[in-house]
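task queued by scheduler; priority normal; single chain, no ligands, no partner chains; default sampling; output format set to structure tokens
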Amino acid sequence: MLDYAALKQQFDESPGELPVCSNPSQDSDALHFETETQPKPQGLTGTRLRSYAFAVLTRKEYSKADLIEKLALYALDRGEVLKLVDELAKENYQSDQRVAEMMLSSQKRKGKGPNRIKMALKSKKIDSSLIQDELKETDWNEQAYQLKVKKFGLEVEKEPKLKAKQIRFLMYRGFEMDAIMQAISRKAED
């Protein structure tokens, strides 16, 4: 162990000189100082956490659950994060409704059906009832037909293997069986 009082006295007497250690095994001990100061806690609090939340929300819309998880990674106190996210939701800076609507339009553009959209919302911990009206208003039969035409063409298949392939494709995309059957049996002139 080091004698801190002796070291301090030695450095105070001759500020320009460094002490020479005669025993090399003591060199490694000299590097391990015992400090009585406690490490500072890492994490954001108060206005810094709020600023980070605004910075995150300006780049991308987050669901309430995703925002809580994102902020909790950097925050010191999870309770403060929950309180902040509730406040941001009240002030409409964060909105699950907006996230759901954006996800709906994005998934529809990608050719996804109602079941796939509901699964995507569930994975983001968003209630699908937020966009229930929009889901009902969409013509899923037409969406399925357009996707079928894009992938397989206008021809109505008579061969069971090819029909099964189209059904599997549209089921994977999240369409209901009624919409699928109408899409694969619909003729171009209909």
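post-processing summary
- The chain has a mean pLDDT of 79.
- The first helix runs from residue 4 to 13.
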